[in-house]
Design brief:
The complex is a heterodimer of chains A (1549) and B (485). Chain A is α/β, with parallel strands linked by helices and 1549 residues long. In chain A, 32% of the residues lie in helices and 18% in strands. Chain A has a ten-stranded mixed β-sheet with strand order 43-44-45-46-48-50-51-52-54-53. An eight-stranded parallel β-sheet of chain A has the order 32-31-41-40-38-37-34-33. In chain A, strands 7-2-8-1-13-12-14 form a seven-stranded antiparallel β-sheet, covered by helices on one side. In chain A, helix 10 packs across helix 11. Classes of the chains: A alpha/beta (1549), B alpha/beta (485).
Chain lengths: 1549, 485
């Protein structure tokens, strides 16, 4: 079957969602000396980054790679001369690298358009050259798309004197010819693309493997091809439809990372169109639009924007600073001039936010910059002969150590530039100081910045509506519950309230209740391809600052009179701030003008009026902006009995989109004044669809009404509420990895569920909506229904009070819930009395959604027309089906020991799997149960409150070991005991968020399992700090596979639009298993807005995953599991049909074990002993493994019955059979009528041999690992404990070294491992990533050279020591020796680094000891135990979220206190031993020793293992140095030490 | 939500009551409602469950967690508003409801349930004391007229809801006073009758018109009022836009054994109302007393229990209560949680003194001079699930007064016949409770609610049906209804 290699959008697959990330690097000669050697070295770098890229189902099918060099003038000159073309001198001609269609006529048409553009721009065509290629080695799919590659030579026309002018002309030619060719819409013209067209640079790239670039492009082999710089890139795309044009480098950049805000950024570019003018480009500016085509990749869009800025006259460094500013907002240490620079430009362009290492060049300068969070690695070296080599990894271009003069890394937000013309490196400070000093930005800022806080006003009292509060609350669908559950806690605690046990109420479009429009949108979040960030511990990079009003001209480089800007510190306006805005003209002397647009209209006009009203509002807004209004206030405060409000979100988005389309959006600000906004999700939506500020007047009035007659309490409530919304917004933003409200505004990070496509396309353009739903008029109707009910006085209850609600807690006649009292009771009774018929009654309550619509699948119907049922005894037995079942990841900690082990025993009895959850596992659970044992006899009397009977042969361990961001208890032994290792990327209850276990819940037992201190709070960060992108995930999968080659590696994702492409990436990253969780599942505690509004139903995510994997031919090699509110056999059958091999259950088995859906798990008061650690309550636990076994079998039995009726004998045959499903007919409900499931039911048409269920296996490539040899050599040690010593060279392609060896030790000897130094391995060279990961006790790795990221992650008792080569001439303490996120989640062992480490050193360390001579930002973040000594300077935010362990820092410059995050730690001096002894307080001593003893021991060990001169120096002048050490003592740790001591005392007494 | 850890800290509290000796001397209520502080502590025990089983266990679906919390926080006003939003007459249910909510309380699984009924009792009493129970007349009149037949809890709830929706409601009652079973079935010591009077005043202020001494059809029947005026059913249907049948299930179950005709063998409902009339101050009340008699009560339910209490107050010389079914278990927890368990229930009347026995079948009444003197009975063996007489277990017990309290079979047939409604197998009026035809009889414009439709049941079920039926009527009359269910 002939298939297009590049499928377009089909079903739920949409190419828009593909992500990429990769390896990037460059080689440059500082002095600009050109040579062919540089080109070759570039290609070597590329080859050595191969492992960072990915291949598709065909191992030769690359995601693309390429190379950017300077114009090789000599070579081209000679080549063209052979054609009889004499090129003008370098700099006076341009070369266009052009991908052309293979169809000759189309090719000609494209060439003609280019030539025409050259002429139109008054330039000269010098000639064309066919670029010679050798495609023999290309993969078939790449060949199919292979373009004809030609170069066009363009000479300068009259009036173009300098190269810069020519460069601009070439830019215009490329843009205008591109638009013209696009306009031709050639069916055979898809290959057309211009990789570069410049007088300075030339790009060679394509759908090539790293090593193929130099083979394919014959030019690159030619020694005459010389350049002083080579920028290379190797791509890893989530899916396998790469194309030639998507390869990097682009014209100016190569990018590793992901721009999370790209949709908003692109919109904002479009929005500016009408407001941009350029003194440089002048009228040519008109020819570049559209600057960015819809559907372009984030990197390509970034490149387009950067190019515009550079062509508009900014230097490339200046432009980069505008697009990726440092985190200046909360940076107390930043130079004021630089701050002013950033602040000035902040209004011109919102940050392009996301993890990014971007290498850029204009051909004269080459540099790189890192995002504000430092989420991508970038290492560089400088050699004595003037080479600069930068790459995602060190060692990617082997250079003799003696030639290296500097080894360093790019730091967060920092830039690094090589100026080839000036012949020198310009460092971040110099570069930015120069740019910041070039103009008096600080002065300008002072002149043009108006802070709303500082605007003098008359303190006008807010306008009071005459309509009673209750009626208005009802008009916006307030419920008692919202006031009580959400608003009251927010106004009391300044935080969003927490709930638990997931969401089991219906989607808005299915609900019988009238819902607000907000309910139809689900928040998107980052998973795998980019990290969420931590808005609490890493608050310094986040900002809620918002500018309201006209934005300055983006290209106004000579701006003499920039417009004023109105700044607010956060976007929620209180009454007075709103009044200031309303009358801003009065307060600013007419410099700003606000116009109010009333979005209410006469309810008598009915629903049909909404469309025209929106059109009029848009027109009014447009006219107002043209007439000079600078702020548009979109207001519904005039709502009353006669006037209904258009949903503010709809009105806002309509106006925002309209102004964007007209290019006017940046000429005015949008402020929404609405009664509807009251929860975080509402504010997030308003921001996400374009509001610069929101005034929630009704929410504020409601708060005031809670405190009648007490204005002080009222204003406190408002203050807290605003604070809570701000915190919540940061959380929502950071879920997506977005740090600033400025970039979040208009970024549309949402997905619609239940809205019709035409509505979305028109008013929420660009938002995904995959199941259709209600249209514009139904939205209006729902608003009118709410309105009418509000003012209808007939209901005697609602006349007096708000509707009770029922969304958050079940209420009769409130919102529906799947778990009704009856459903819970029936399920418990069925499983306890072993009654399948009672189970069927339960299943009927859940499955029958003919009247109460709850879930998408509830509206599915089985297509029985064409099937022939089979007798049920022909269907595979339930005992087989239950093997596909597992229970959810619930940690011992979130649920009781009794509940946790009950699930494990039950699942092991049936051959299914249980999951440890995040939090380690008791090693006493590993051995099988012998006759006569009970839970208590096995785990110990003090550990079990309610004993559980066991049978001989029972197994207590969980087959699935979870690896979550906290890495609690993730030791080599823990991993070795797994059958499956699950990487939790996200969880249904709160995708994109971290969590924390409060100290009071960390019992002695839990602390033991998690290798932490009892009573010390444990924080799980939002991201895995070793997964910031897809290739990082591939690395972690590789690490875990090494840690246990027999376990399958699973990745848990949460359903959202685009999850299918992420799953494809996961499959390419070699995961064996992927879980797609529904948004509604999840038992964990989480903010309500996350439980309700983040992610989508699994039906969508699973179907998208199945479609994308099959389309990519990646399905066979990965097993797909679904979970999230699975309750019945029908759910299982539908899951299988939509693509699942396996099924996860969490809530239902808990209910079977006694849970009665209290939704109070987070309070530790579970009255049935399930989700609590309180011993008294745990005694009330009544669950038994038998009940869970019964449940699983009932579910399987019900599934069998359904399978029989569908004529299916084996579950495998059911997978992907969407033809068996149809939408339920005759759905009467007025909202549900518009739903359309055809995209869910669509199956890609692929050849029969393409797998549609799990049937193949991944190739993990472990046989190539260095460890194979190590294991061989270490046999005497492994078998007999004899000492062995091994010497070996190492390179950056040797990744995860020592891990498989550690597995062998852990498998045999457990966590205790071998005696110290049993296996000693000496390496020399640059070690690849994850050097010494999960290294077991008894192994000592000593390395001469350096390491990359993740060195020593999960260190489990081994020792790592790294020192530079003796030949390296730099001072070790001033050079980098190891990468980012070193010792992440280390449990035990030692590590010594003679040199500086990158960002996030020893993050989440819980027991290892480490010494290092300097660290980057976020050192010791989230640390819970262990000891770290830093013998040099640290970056910022040291010790953020650190709750345990101790760090000793040598405060070289005396400013450590300013770099340390003081929220959770105290800083103390290191006292002399005698003094500390004299002072007493021994119970607070770390490890029972004095600090002086601790530090000295560490430094001595450091000296011993690394030969550190610094260590010797410190020891030599100890008295002097001791005084300069600072002890970082976590407050939590101190408290816990005190409590432990008190407990011991009590015990003794 | 009460106090997070309240259920761990506080105990369930019984409402205080007068001693048995003292209360047997009068007919007044003897149970005291909780003090504010006690109620607050009891409210603190509520866990505010995410899935409140109490609410689904309660027939009127009282929003129990909410008002528990409000009482805990001392917001009694909002508590009564919330309580009233689902229950028209908490003062009735707060006194006489057997509290299925408490059987469904999550604490009931492994602890003593929250004293929900005692909190309800406290809320409504405090509300009346504070003057918070005021008439809520409709904002606008609809011009529609509805007749409600029967003034028991179903009829009253229905009438009040309909009046509040703006309809002109007329309640027809065959007796001389309003209240039906509440008035004449439940003894004063369980619920004093001024509670009803106070509600009627409220309802009158809301526009409900009450017509006592009006009986539907030709002739008064049963324990009805001999002075009652007949009302023509057809005319009712013509004069009103809708008519609601809420006449209860008044036909008692009989015991057709030899000697049934003897003097001194009475239905409980021939006995209990007389005492209520006496307490109400009526003269010329029939002279049927238990004083000095050997009283045997047949039937182990609530009515039987009321007979016990009344007989004790009459100073009977002995009181014996027989139940046909075996003695139910008396488990500490609810084995059927969250559903209603069959369990041994010991009422306050039982506490006042009575012999009780189970698995007893009455074989005959033995008389002397036409008056009952004794009762012949036999023990039953239920082990097979069916009753088997235990050989040789026959016994005879002296009895001067036998009260038959074996439940009610059906509504009075004559009322149904004059309307010509379809009946179900049990002789109740046939009507659904959900969907378009909810609470509608087979006759156009004619609705039904309460025991007349569902058969004998609890007061709280009657209130539910009355409310639901009102909504159905409102929908029928207006096309849609804003009445809460």
């Amino acid at each position: 079957m002939e298939l297009p290699a590049q499928p377009g959008a089909q079903g739920l697959y949409d190419p828009r969602h593909e992500h990429d990330a990769c390896g990037v690097g460059f080689v440059a000669h500082i002095k600009g000396k050109k040579s062919h050697g540089i080109v070759e070295q570039g290609l070597t770098v590329l080859r050595n980054l191969t492992h960072r890229g990915a291949v598709g189902w065909d191992p030769k099918l690359s995601d693309g790679s390429g190379l950017l060099i300077q114009i090789p003038d000599r070579f081209l000159r000679e080549e063209m001369a052979r054609q009889g073309v004499k090129l003008p001198p370098l700099g006076q001609y341009g070369v266009g690298m052009v991908f052309l269609p293979r169809d000759p006529a189309s090719r000609q048409a494209c060439e003609y358009e280019i030539e025409r553009a050259v002429k139109d721009e008054g330039q000269v065509i010098l000639g064309w050259r066919d670029v010679p290629v050798d495609n023999a080695d290309l993969a078939e799919p790449a060949k199919k798309l292979e373009p004809v590659i030609r170069q066009i030579f363009i000479g300068r026309g009259r009036g173009v004197t300098v190269t810069d002018a020519l460069e601009r002309k070439l830019y215009i030619i490329r843009k205008s010819s591109g638009h013209a060719i696009q306009a031709l819409r050639l069916a055979h013209g898809k290959e057309f693309y211009v990789p570069s067209m410049s007088a300075r640079t030339l790009v060679y790239k394509g759908m090539l493997l790293a090593h193929q670039v130099g083979e394919y492009y014959l030019d690159l082999k030619d020694a005459r091809v010389e350049s002083a710089l080579a920028l290379v890139h190797q791509r890893f795309s989530t899916n396998t439809f790469p194309s030639w044009d998507l390869a990097h480098p682009f014209r100016m950049i190569a990018h590793n990372g992901e721009i999370n805000t790209v949709r908003g950024n692109v919109n904002w570019i479009r929005a500016r169109q009408g407001a941009i003018s350029s003194p440089v480009l002048d009228e040519d500016l008109g020819k570049i639009w559209p600057l960015i085509y819809p559907g372009q990749s984030d990197s390509a869009s970034f490149d387009n924007a950067l190019e515009l800025l550079v062509m508009g006259g900014y230097s490339v460094a200046h432009a980069m600073m505008m697009m990726i500013p440092e985190a200046w907002e909360n940076h107390a240490l930043m130079d004021p001039a630089r701050r002013a620079f950033y602040e000035y430009h902040a209004a011109m362009m919102e940050p392009w936010d996301g993890p990014a290492s971007i290498a850029f060049t204009d051909g004269r300068q080459i540099g790189a910059t890192l995002d504000r969070n430092g989420l991508r690695p970038s290492r560089y070296i400088v050699t004595e002969d003037g080479l600069v080599i930068m790459g995602s990894e060190c060692g990617c271009l082997p250079v003799p150590e003696e030639k290296i003069v500097k080894k360093w890394r790019l730091q967060p937000g920092k830039m690094f530039l090589v100026d080839l013309e000036k012949g020198r490196i310009v460092d971040d400070a110099e570069l930015k100081d120069a740019l910041s000093g070039a103009r008096p930005y600080a002065e300008w800022i002072e002149r043009i910045r108006v802070k709303l806080d500082e605007v003098e006003s008359e303190k006008t009292a807010p306008l009071k509506s005459a309509v009673p509060l209750l009626d208005r609350q009802q008009a916006f669908a307030y419920t008692q519950e919202e006031v009580k559950f959400l608003m009251a806690p927010m106004s009391q605690n300044g935080e969003e309230p927490i709930g638990s046990m997931g969401n089991d109420s219906p989607l808005a479009v299915l609900s019988g209740k009238d819902k607000t429009l907000y309910h139809y949108f689900k928040q998107l979040f980052a998973q795998v391809t980019n990290p969420p960030i931590d808005p609490i511990r890493e608050e310094l990079v986040t900002s809620l600052v918002s500018f309201i009003g006209p934005k300055p001209n983006l290209l106004g480089i000579d701006e003499m009179n920039p417009p004023l800007r109105l700044e607010v510190s956060q976007p929620v306006l209180d009454f007075y701030e709103m009044e200031k805005i309303r009358h801003i003209e009065r307060y600013t002397g007419g410099k700003f003008r606000a116009l109010e647009l009333d979005i209410t209209y006469p309810v008598a006009w009915g629903r049909d009026a909404v469309e025209a009203r929106l059109a009029s509002l848009c027109a009014q807004a447009e006219d107002a902006v043209r007439a000079g209004a600078s702020i548009i206030v979109i207001s519904d405060r005039l709502v009353d009995r006669e006037r209904v409000a258009i949903p503010a979100l709809l009105a806002l988005s309509a106006i925002h989109q309209h102004l964007v389309a007209k290019g006017l959006r940046t000429s005015a600000g949008l402020v929404v004044e609405t009664g509807s906004a009251r929860e975080v999700h509402h504010f997030a939506l308003l921001g996400g669809y374009g509001a610069e500020a929101v005034h929630p007047y009704l929410a504020l009035e409601t708060l005031l009404a809670m405190h009648p007659g007490d204005p002080a309490a009222g204003s406190k409530a408002i203050k807290n509420f605003v604070k809570a919304v701000g915190k919540g917004l940061k959380k929502v933003m950071s879920k997506m990895g977005i740090s600033t409200y400025m970039s979040y505004t208009g970024a549309q990070i949402f997905e619609a569920v239940g809205l019709a496509r035409p509505l979305v396309d028109k008013y929420f353009t660009g938002t995904a909506s995959n199941v259709g739903g209600i249209g514009l008029f139904e939205v209006a109707e729902e608003a009118i229904r709410i309105h009418c009910a509000a003012f209808d006085e007939r209901d005697p209850v609602l006349r007096e009070m708000l509707d009770a609600g029922g969304e958050y807690a079940w209420r009769v006649r409130g919102e529906e819930h799947m778990w009704t009292p009856d459903a819970i009771a029936k399920l418990q009774r069925a499983t306890r009395s072993d009654s399948y018929s009672s189970y069927k009654e339960y299943a009927q309550i859940i499955n029958d959604q003919s009247l109460r619509h709850m879930t998408l699948r509830g509206l599915f119907e089985f297509q029985r027309d064409k099937v022939r049922p089979v007798p049920i005894d022909e269907v595979e037995p339930a005992a087989e089906i239950v093997k596909r079942f597992s229970t959810g990841a619930m940690s011992l900690g979130s649920i009781s020991t009794e509940a946790h082990t009950t699930l494990a025993v039950a699942m092991n009895r049936i051959g299914g799997k249980s999951n440890t959850g995040e939090g380690g596992e008791d090693r006493r659970r590993y051995a099988p149960v012998k006759a006569g044992e009970t839970l208590r006899s096995r785990l110990g009397a003090g550990r079990v409150e309610k004993d559980i009977e066991l049978r001989a042969g029972d197994v207590l361990k969980s087959k699935i070991k979870q690896v979550a961001s906290g890495r609690f208890g993730v030791t080599a032994e823990y991993l070795a005991s797994a059958e499956q290792i699950q990487i939790k990327m996200a969880q249904g209850a709160k995708p994109g968020e971290g969590g924390q276990l409060p100290g009071r819940k960390v019992s002695e037992y839990i602390a033991e399992l998690r290798f932490s201190t009892p009573g010390v709070e444990l924080i799980s960060p939002p991201p895995h700090h070793d997964i910031y992108s897809i290739e990082d995930l591939a690395q972690l999968i590789h690490d875990l596979k090494n840690a246990n080659p027999n376990a399958s590696i699973s990745v848990k994702l949460v359903s959202e639009v685009g999850v299918g492409t992420v799953a494809a990436g996961v499959s390419k990253a070699k995961a064996d298993h992927v879980t797609i969780s529904g948004y509604d599942g999840g038992t964990g505690a989480s903010p309500w807005s996350s439980i309700k509004h983040a992610g989508t139903p699994w039906e969508l995510g699973l179907a998208e995953t199945q479609q994308t994997l099959v389309l990519n031919r990646l399905r066979g090699r990965i097993a797909v599991q679904v979970d999230g509110q699975l309750k019945t056999g029908r759910d299982v059958v539908i899951g299988a049909i939509l693509g699942a091999d396996e099924f996860g259950f969490a809530t239902a088995p808990l209910v079977v074990s006694g849970c009665i859906m209290m939704r109070k798990c987070h309070l530790n008061t579970c009255p049935v002993g399930v989700a609590t650690q309180d011993p008294a309550l745990r005694r009330k636990f009544t669950g038994k493994p038998e009940y869970v076994v019964n449940y699983m079998f009932y579910v399987a039995e019900e599934a069998r019955e359904l399978m029989a009726s569908l004529g299916i004998r084996k579950l495998d045959e059911l997978i992907g059979r969407t033809d068996l499903l149809d939408m339920r007919k005759g759905i009467e409900h007025w909202k549900a009528k518009g739903l359309d499931f055809s995209r869910i039911f669509e199956m890609p048409k692929m050849p029969v041999q393409v797998a549609v269920h799990h049937s193949e296996s991944q190739d993990h490539g472990l046989e190539k690992a260095l460890d194979q040899r190590l294991i061989e050599l270490a046999q005497p040690a492994l078998e007999r404990g004899e000492k062995v010593a091994i010497d070996m060279p190492i390179r950056n392609i040797n990744r995860t070294v020592g891990t498989m060896l550690s597995h062998e030790i852990a498998r045999r000897y457990g966590h205790e491992g071998l005696a110290e130094d049993t296996i000693q391995v000496r390496f020399a060279g640059s070690a690849g990533q994850s050097f010494g990961a999960f290294l077991a006790r008894g192994v000592a790795l000593s390395l001469v050279g350096d390491t990359n990221d993740y060195c020593g992650k999960g260190l489990s008792g081994g020792r790592i020591s790294v020192q530079p080569s003796p030949k390296f001439r730099g001072e070790p303490a001033d050079n980098i020796i190891t990468g980012n996120v070193v010792l992440y989640g280390a449990i035990a062992g030692e590590a010594y680094f003679r040199g500086v480490a990158g960002e996030r050193f020893a993050v989440r360390n819980s027991g290892a000891t480490a010494v290092v001579e300097g660290v980057g930002d976020h050192g010791c973040e989230y640390m819970t135990g262990g000891t770290v000594a830093v013998l040099g300077s640290t970056g910022r935010n040291f010790a953020a979220g650190m709750s345990g362990g101790i760090a000793y820092v040598l405060d070289t410059d005396g400013d450590f206190a300013r770099r340390c995050n003081p929220a959770m730690v105290d800083l103390e001096p290191i006292l002399a031993e005698t003094e500390q002894q004299a002072r007493g307080g021994r119970e607070f001593w770390h490890l029972g020793r004095t600090d002086e003893a601790n530090v000295r021991a560490l430094i001595e060990a450091h000296a011993k293992h690394t030969g550190s001169r610094r260590a010797q120096q410190i020891l030599g002048q100890w008295a002097e140095y001791r005084a300069r050490f600072v002890k970082v003592f976590p407050k939590e740790y101190r408290r816990a030490l005190g409590e432990l001591a008190a407990a011991r005392k009590k015990e003794a007494a | 939500m009460g106090k997070v850890t309240g259920f761990l800290e506080y105990q369930r509290l019984q409402e205080a009551s007068e001693s048995t000796d003292a209360r047997k001397k009068h007919y007044r209520e003897f149970v005291l409602h909780l003090s504010d502080e006690e109620a607050k502590i009891q409210g603190a025990r509520c866990m505010d469950c995410g899935t409140p089983f109490c609410m689904s266990g309660c027939p009127v679906n009282n929003i129990i967690p909410d008002w528990n919390d409000l009482v805990y926080r001392g917001d009694w006003k909002l508590a009564i508003d919330t309580l009233h939003s689902t229950n028209n007459f908490p003062e009735f249910t707060g006194r006489v409801c057997p509290a299925p909510c408490e059987e469904a309380c999550v604490l009931r699984i492994n602890n003593d349930p929250v004293g929900i009924k005692s909190i309800e009792h406290a809320i409504i009493d405090r509300a009346w004391e504070s003057g918070w129970v005021a008439p809520q007349p409709a904002a606008a009149r609809t011009g529609k007229k509805v007749a409600v037949i029967g003034s028991g809890p179903a009829g009253l709830a229905c009438a009040q809801q309909l009046a509040r929706a703006g309809h002109a409601v007329t309640v027809y009652e065959k007796n001389d006073r309003i209240g039906g079973l509440l008035r004449y079935g439940i003894p004063d010591f369980k619920m004093e009758k001024w509670h009803i009077d106070r509600r009627i005043e409220q309802m009158q202020a809301e526009g409900v018109e009450f017509r006592t001494n009006h009986v539907i059809g030709a002739a008064p029947v049963g324990a009805g009022n001999r002075q009652a005026r007949p009302v023509d059913a057809k005319k009712l249907l013509k004069d009103f836009d809708a008519v609601v049948l809420a006449g209860g299930a008044e036909v008692p179950r009989d015991l057709p054994v030899p000697g049934r005709d003897l003097d001194g063998v009475h239905f409980a409902m021939d006995f209990l109302p007389l005492q209520n009339r006496r307490v109400a101050g009526d003269k010329n009340v029939d002279d049927l007393w238990a004083s000095g008699k050997h009283v045997v009560i047949i039937g182990g339910g609530d009515t039987g229990s009321d007979c016990v209490g009344t007989s004790n107050r009459h100073a009977a010389s002995s009181i014996t209560q027989f139940e046909l079914l075996p003695m139910p278990p008396d488990p500490e927890r609810n084995p059927e949680w969250p559903y209603w368990p069959t369990r041994l229930r010991t009422s306050s009347s039982h506490e006042e003194g009575a012999e009780r026995d189970w698995s007893i079948a009455t074989k005959a009444f033995v008389g002397e001079g036409g008056k009952v003197k004794a009762l012949k009975a036999v023990k039953l063996d239920w082990t097979s699930g069916k009753p088997v007489e235990v050989p040789g277990s026959e016994f005879e017990l002296p009895a001067d007064l036998v009260l038959l309290a074996m439940g009610f079979v059906s509504p009075v047939a004559s009322v149904l016949e004059v309307f010509g409604v379809e009946k179900d197998a049990r002789g109740n009026v046939r009507a659904d409770v959900e969907g378009a035809s909810a609470y509608r009889t087979s006759v156009d414009k004619l609705f039904t609610a309460g025991d007349m439709r569902r058969g004998q049941s609890l007061v709280v079920w009657a209130i539910r049906e009355g409310r639901q039926c009102a909504r159905a009527v409102d929908e029928f009359l207006m096309g849609l209804s804003e009445l809460p269910r």
